[in-house]
Structures are given as structure tokens and as C-alpha cells.
């Protein structure tokens, strides 16, 4: 009796393992098929090291999960060497994940300008995308400064501060289901030589009176999320992007998710 029970138990375990194997194979096949025929493709140009690496790594995990749920594909880049007209033509959305607006190849610059000005795809930029000025021995990219509202980087809060962000256009699709105001903890809060407001459509701004701890690094009117409607491409700049803990902030992840589908002109 014991021998028959042992044989039956072993057979059931083998059948269970085979079932798990084939279910896993089916899931892998489905994922592979989605990657071959995704709803849309996204380029993520991400910093490859430095102090923002923890944020970038957290963003990749979050993006990969969202891509699996919503059936889109992502191609990650760590430099602009591959970027040209043909490469951009394969993608409906370009995410500049903390990658700065300098050290781009001339070919990549020209292709990106065409992509944005001709509305060939959408764009989301984070944090470092407004690090506009002379950095690492490079000159400022004037076109990109204009794209960001004609601004130049001046300072930041190196010791970090909490701040309350107010949504200014709650009707915009990227702000759907975002509570206002919402708290952003321990951010650098860049300042620029002027507010981009006259040249862009501001979606949200930080109230500098709510900085904790207080700081002298302020600029008055301080937009932190905006879109430049003078360009054909759907585009949105989101200043926040220093710490990985932002991916535990529901306001931030809701804005990020909304922005992906709006900028790519897709339905979730």
C-alpha cells in the first residue's frame, strides 16, 4: 500500500511540474509574441551611472512591469550613438530618463529635432533634461533650451527639501486622478534663470513657501511640470526624478503612467 501511495504521489508531483513547465513556456511565448507585436515601442534614454542610478534602476523595474501589463515594448539606451532618423521611426515615444541635454552625437541631435518638430512621436523628459548650460566641457544646446521654454540652469538644493506641488491644469490628461496638492519628499528643486511659464503650458508648480527645511534657493514662480505646445510632438517635462522613493509616491507614478499613454497617443 505504501509503495502504491508513493508511486502515485511521485506521479502527481511529476505531472504538477510538467504543468508548471508548460504554463511557464506558454507565458514566455506570450511575452515574446507581445515583444514582436507590441501596441507601441518606447525608447528610454537613461543615465548609466552616477547619483541618479538608483532612480533609473527603480524606473526600469516600474516601466518593465507597466509594459508587461499594457503590452508595449521598451528599448533601453545609455548613449545616443544608435539614434538616427531610422531608429526613431521605429518608436512612438521617447523617454529621456534623467539623461542630460548634452553629449549627444550630431546625428542624434538632428534626428531628435526632426522627431519633435514634425511630431513623429511623443517625448517625456525627467529631471536632468533641464540641466541646460555649460557642463562637462560642452556648450548649451540652444534648441533644447527653447524646447524647455528658453531656460538655463542656475542652481539646486543639494541638501534636499520636501515641497508641495500644486496641479494647475487638472483637465489635462496627464493629471487625471492626481490629487492636488501632493507632497514630494527630498527633492533637489532646480532653479533656472527665469520661469518657463511665458513659453510653455504649465501643468504643475511647486510652492516654495512649503519647502522643508526652508532654503534661500528659490526662484518665485516655479513650474515643475509643463508641456511646450509650440512643437508638434506631444511632450511633457517632469522635474522630479532624483530618488527611487518616488516610485512609492502615487501622484508621481500616476503622472508618469498618464504621460506615457498621452505622449505616445495611445489608450491604456
Describe the overall structure.
- With 268 residues, the protein is α/β, with parallel strands linked by helices.
- The chain is 34% helix and 22% strand.
- The chain has helices at 2-36, 53-70, 85-89, 106-117, 142-147, 250-263, and strands spanning 41-46, 73-77, 93-97, 122-126, 153-155, 161-167, 182-187, 191-192, 201-212, 223-227, 235-238.
- Strands 2-1-3-4-11-10-9-6-7 form a nine-stranded mixed β-sheet.
- Helix 4 links the parallel strand 3 (93-97) and strand 4 (122-126).
- Mean pLDDT is 90; it is low at 1-7, 16-20 and 25-34.
Descriptive key words:
268 residues; 9-stranded mixed sheet; two-stranded antiparallel ribbon; alpha/beta; 11 strands
Helix amount:
25-40%
| Gross geometry | globular
Run of helices and strands? HEHEHEHEHEEEEEEEH
Ends apart, CA distance between termini: 57 Å
Sheet having the most strands: 9 strands, mixed
In what range is the share of β-strand residues?
Answer: 15-25%
The number of helices is 6
- Global structural class: alpha/beta
Specify Rg, calculated over alpha carbons: 22 Å
How many beta-strand elements? 11
Stretches with pLDDT under 50, minimum 5 residues: 1-7, 16-20, 25-34
Q: Going across the major beta sheet, what is the strand order?
A: 2-1-3-4-11-10-9-6-7
Average pLDDT over all residues: 90
List the helices and strands and how they pair.
Elements: H1 2-36, E1 41-46, H2 53-70, E2 73-77, H3 85-89, E3 93-97, H4 106-117, E4 122-126, H5 142-147, E5 153-155, E6 161-167, E7 182-187, E8 191-192, E9 201-212, E10 223-227, E11 235-238, H6 250-263
Parallel strand pairs: 1-2, 1-3, 3-4, 4-11
Antiparallel strand pairs: 5-8, 6-7, 6-9, 9-10, 10-11
